[in-house]
Amino acid sequence: MATTETPNLKQFQRLPQSTYIDSLRFLPPLSALDRYVVVSSFNSDSNQPSIQLHSIHSQTLTLHSSFTPSSRTTSLKVALQNPLIAASTVTGSLHILSPNPIHASFDSEVSLPENTLHLGPISGLDLQDNGAACVSVGEDGRVNLISVGDSGLEYRRVFDSRGLVSYTAARWASPTDFATGGLGNSVQWWDLRRPGGPVSQFKGNWATSGIVHSIDIHPSRKHTCLAGGSYGTVFAWDLRRPQQPIVLSGIDNGETTTCISESDVWEVQYDTYMSTSDHAKLSSKGVLPAMICSEDGILAVLKQGEEPTELLTENCAINCFDIDRQNPSDVICGLEWESIALLTRA
After folding, report:
1. Is the pTM of this model over 0.90?
2. What is the DSSP letter of 297?
3. How far apart are CA 47 and CA 132, in angstroms?
């Protein structure tokens, strides 16, 4: 078993793959004995995309089932309360997969074809925890709501900027509220009960323009949106103070604060793995700990007012990661050099 010298990890395993890893997600438990992860990958030699269902056992992955989407995936999301998988593609199609808990296979699939939701790629996608609805966004300026039901998929357009505004990320906050991010380190807040456009928005006042690549919203603090993007930027946007972002990494009012990375932050998530001392430090006004991965090969935890904690430093980009909701000490991430890394924190 491969090991790492970092004192923050108890176990570390790098698993070489034959394909490029675009995204990966832990699945809610399908059975009492096994853990599963869904992986979207791309074979550059055959130009073949794939969505795969793996089980995890003793720091190894075992492939059980595979599905071929219409094109390479741009986003992969999982419903936490209902084991549904949503995947969007570069040609604008959307696939909803249902895993079978008995046979560990994909039981069913419904989809919307390309150019139905967006003109071009779906750049951002999120699936509600109960699996009832998706929100999709694109650089074409469209925001769509997709309902997932027994009769298939239905959609309606929430907004269309006709290309005047581009969106690159999306995240649900509640069944009626969601956030989007885009160019200029901008973040928008939407309420389906108040149609016509975002109900609140923030445009970053940065020395250099950037793009929000990823958004997360913690279920206990739905008024605060965590965002990560270009130039190592990570910040929290609080709806109660909409023009005063809390910068965790990057440039704040023209001055560089603690900067964990100088390249793109591809994904951010609130980190649910905390010690007793961490809980004691938290306040209702502070930003909860966050985990990020970056183009320059860093997987790290950021805590407001503290130095970052690096879990991994690789010689290649870390494109994606996910934290196991059932066992928050466990993390899985995709490396640019066709590898998957399994980590257990000390």
Report:
1. yes
2. S
3. 32
